Amino acid sequence: MISGAIAAIVADPRHFDSGRDFAASLGLVPRQDGTGGKVKLGPISKRGNGYLRRLLVNGATAVLNGKNARNDAWQAKLLDSKPKKLAAVALANKMARIAWAVMTRQETYRPRAVAAAA
Questions:
Q1: What pLDDT, on the 0 to 100 scale, is given for residue 81?
Q2: Distances 31 to 27, 28, 34, 76, 95 between C-alpha atoms, Å
Q3: Is residue 63 situated within a structural domain?
Q4: Integer Cα distance of 95 and 59 in angstroms
Q5: Partners of 95 in the beta sheet?
Q6: Is 35 within the bounds of a domain?
Q7: Which residues pair with 82 in a beta bridge?
Q8: C-alpha distances out from residue 10 to 2, 16, 23, Å
């Protein structure tokens, strides 16, 4: 459902210079506030397409609530160090970047190999 929505809404992913720009266009990056050269990062900016942002965050929440959430080292570290909702937004950001890479390269998604547990 998410991939179909992204494909329908994003006509040309090459309009974005990077996956970071694509995720920022969806509002999946921290809002920056600050004065005097000191920048403070706040909650997500909530600018951009709210529908795609909601789909990605809900999908990321489902992944983190699943049985296999701790199998991935990145997700396990994130869950140990951050609140669950913040981890879901971080995973949604990562998913958006992956979606941008898949669309620009026009390849199928190949997950990285997980190291075998010793």
A1: 93
A2: 9, 9, 10, 25, 19
A3: yes
A4: 9
A5: none
A6: yes
A7: none
A8: 12, 10, 12
| Mean pLDDT value across residues 70-98 | 91
**Domain contains 112:** no
Q: Give dist(CA 69, CA 73) in Å, integer.
A: 9
Alpha-helical (H) ranges within 1-118 are 2-9, 19-25, 50-65, 73-81, 84-105
What's the average model confidence in pLDDT over 88-107?
88
Model pTM score? 0.79
Domains: count for the chain: 1
Token pair listed for 75:
């997700």
Structural domain range at position 94: 2-105
pLDDT one-digit tens code per residue, 29-52: 877 788 888 887 777 767 778 888
Give the DSSP letter of residue 14: G
Length of the chain: 118
Token output for 89:
């937004």
How far apart are alpha carbons 19 and 29 in whole angstroms? 12
Q: Is residue 114 in a domain?
A: no
